[in-house]
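Hi all, posting the design record for the shared folder.

TITLE: backbone redesign
STEP: 1 of 1
STRUCTURE INPUT:
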């Protein structure tokens, strides 16, 4: 069992380890022992931006996300995940992924998975520039 406070600590350490980026905003809000909110703005040296927003609860010892939004934007790419209750045609509704102009089925990724995908996007963009 991981508490909300432990999850926030793990996330803070993960964000601090991201190379070539600085934290514009890092806000943890513990509303109760079983409920919390997290908001992060991570800015990269090329001005790309990753915004993270989560509302989570602890239910029967398990973390669950009431809402989440992960949005990455740079001049050449846009990527986002959220569970806003639109796009009912998507089989993983309400969970979905925005990849450029497309909306596709996707389960809820972890922040670590989003960071890995952002790293892949950034590496691809750098390799195209050389």
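Okay, here is what came back for every position:
SEQUENCE:
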């Amino acid at each position: 069992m991981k508490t909300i406070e432990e999850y926030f600590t793990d996330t803070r350490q993960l964000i601090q380890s991201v190379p070539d980026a600085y934290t514009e905003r890092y806000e943890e809000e513990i509303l109760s022992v079983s409920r919390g909110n997290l908001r992060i703005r991570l800015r990269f040296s090329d001005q790309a931006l990753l915004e993270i927003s989560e509302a989570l609860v602890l239910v029967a010892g398990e973390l669950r996300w009431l809402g989440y939004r992960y949005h990455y934007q740079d001049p050449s790419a846009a990527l986002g995940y959220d569970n806003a209750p639109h796009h009912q045609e998507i089989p993983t509704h309400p969970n979905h992924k925005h990849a450029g102009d497309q909306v596709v089925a996707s389960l809820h990724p972890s922040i670590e998975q989003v960071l890995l995908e952002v790293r892949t996007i950034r590496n691809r963009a750098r390799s195209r520039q050389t």
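COMMENT: The longest strand covers residues 62-74.
Let me know if anyone wants the other runs.
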